[in-house]
Amino acid sequence: MTVALPGRVVVVGCGHMGLAIAQGLLRSDAPPAVVAVERDPARRDVLRDVPGLTVTDVFAPTAADLVVLAVPPQDFEAFAVEHASAFDRAQPTMSVMAGITAAGVGQALGTVEVVRVIPNTPSEVFGGMSVWYALPTASAVLEPAEALLLTIGKALRVHREEQVDDATAICGGGPAFVSYIVDAFCRFGEARGFSAHESRFMAAQVFSGSAALIADSAKPPMQLCREVMTAGGTTERGIAVFEAAELTATVSRALEASAGRSRELAGALAGAPAREQG
């Protein structure tokens, strides 16, 4: 069953992630009204060039709006102090702030309708991978939140919130980690005489094609890797360098560090102000 988006989505904080969500929504088949609430005057000037986006510095949601909180996590406490009175118990609220728990958001704003999401920047081109968790008390926000996420890519709901921290590493930071590696491919190509455009063209297609193959195949990724390798061949020689450098362990440490930082932020930001949910 297709679930309709809410009539209006209010995105609070329109940096890279907030804008990616807004643009994904605006490019959907049946876009809702999208309002960007942004305090930075220079950023508002940039946002006014986005077709279809309403830009303001005033946060004034209605009860039917889906509120998407995309402010920097360290700014949430000040936002909650100033705007908690604008929320009621049933305000549908989606947080994309790393490190702040769904319960922390709900307690600070006085709403039980909270989902916590880790989206990523490919949402802007409908290639997002969002992992989300809902408060046990949430009901009305569930379908609109999932409908929103499906307009900007794919979504996976988890029922243990600690998994969101791990998804922060895999999905939230993933585009940066992949881009870092793609950059190495591009640099190699340019060093071997390909133009910057040619190097980027090849690298991007190799990664997107490989991702599609992994997604569509029932084979484990490592099996697909071995199928490319032949004994004494070129790929085997390259993989041997990865193995010698312990690349798998290095990537695992990077993901563990990223997930750990998400948990650190949760601990540091656990003191967000709370008000009674009567």
**What is the name of the CATH class of the largest domain?**
Alpha Beta
Structural class: alpha/beta
> What order do the SSEs take from the amino end to the carboxyl end, as H and E?
EHEHEEHEHEEHEHHHHHH
Low-confidence stretches: 272-278
The biggest sheet amounts to: 8 strands, mixed
Q: Cα-atom Rg, whole angstroms?
A: 21 Å
Number of helices: 11
In the CATH hierarchy, the architecture of the largest domain is 3-Layer(aba) Sandwich
* CATH-derived topology of the largest domain: Rossmann fold
What's the N-to-C terminus distance?
34 Å
| Oligomeric description of these chains | single chain
Q: For the record, what is the CATH homologous superfamily label of the largest domain?
A: NAD(P)-binding Rossmann-like Domain
Q: What is the domain tally?
A: 2
Mean pLDDT across the residues is: 92
- Indicate the percent of residues in helices: 40-55%
What is the number of beta strands? 8
The proportion of residues in beta strands is 5-15%
In one word, what is the shape?
A: globular
Strand order of the largest sheet: 3-2-1-4-5-6-7-8
What do these coordinates show?
The protein is built from 11 helices and 8 strands. The protein is of the alpha/beta class and 278 residues long. The protein folds into 2 domains: 160 residues, Rossmann fold (3-Layer(aba) Sandwich), CATH 3.40.50.720; 72 residues, ProC C-terminal domain-like (ProC C-terminal domain-like fold, Orthogonal Bundle). The protein has an 8-stranded mixed β-sheet, with helices on both faces. α3 links the parallel β4 and β5. α6 crosses α11 and α7 crosses α8. The C terminus is likely disordered.
